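Board notes, transcribed. Complex of a protein with zinc ion.
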Amino acid sequence: MGVERMKNSMKAVTVSAIGSFVQGERDIPRPKAGEVLVRVAVTGLCRTDLKLIRSGHRDLSLPRIPGEEVVGVVAENGPGAVRHSVGARVYVYPGEWCGRCPACRSGAENLCREMRIMGFHRDGGFAEYVVAPEKSLIALDDTCGFHDAVFAEPLSCCINALELSRLSAGERIGIWGGGPAGTLLKRTARYMGADVVVIEPDGGRQERVGGRETAAGELFDVCIPAVGDGEAYRAALEHLAPRGRLVAFSGLPAHAACRAADYNHLHYHEQTVVGAYGCALRHGATALELIASGAVAVSDLVSHTLPLSALDAALDLVAERRCMKIHLDPKE
Ligand SMILES: [Zn+2]
């Protein structure tokens, strides 16, 4: 059992009550049987973290170190953990699943009835170290840098959504929102051979992602709202073609979440609405292949790399949509 341990405490962000967090030193966690201690190289900040810290989240239990987008280096193997050697560079799939329930057996471990998500149900990557089950780690290609590899998590969620949409080459897809998720969906859908339109009202983002407003009567085979906005869902249904599929990809704020779809519209047009939440482990392997091969470019999406100590300012940037992807360096 190799050990890379240098000290006993680490910098970490802890949320003890919704709406605030504290930064300070915490004991470095110890990996139990089958677990691995990972020294975090880069942790990605996403809109879900903003929601989780400032408004709460269905899957959050407190107190918690957030952070579900993590890449790093294996620092210590717990008892019986043998798959990755100390020093190995890894992507950490944020899920911990039972492997026995119907969802797990169907390959949808993200829907496991005992799902424990890193940064939600157990401590995550807004810290110098994180503990994860060894089966959740995927070794990184030597050529894939940490700042690219950390996109494996958000890209995995996009791949899951596109799988569920049953998008095929030559079909038209409309993606609402030109933020990091919308842009990853766009690039992946284009790689799959689809004809992609990003619907983005913000002038600055319109230019960056080649987005535009919808045309009157324009229809898409697949519509994906990549913004947590009831208006985007309404527009996405309006622009859904006959036999079209709408993917409920972005969670909605509680006050906007209960909008009913027009079931007669679905009935007469034989349309499908399908949810997508998170990703399975295998999506991580696919995402890392797409990133490492250059099939889906990611590096230009990083607008800020900030020390973990700047988290509050980073959350403001996300809240005000003044950024694309923010990467946090937990050492600082
Ligand atoms: Zn399960």
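The mean pLDDT is 94. Residues 97-98, 100-101, 103-104, 112-114 surround zinc ion (CB under 6 Å).
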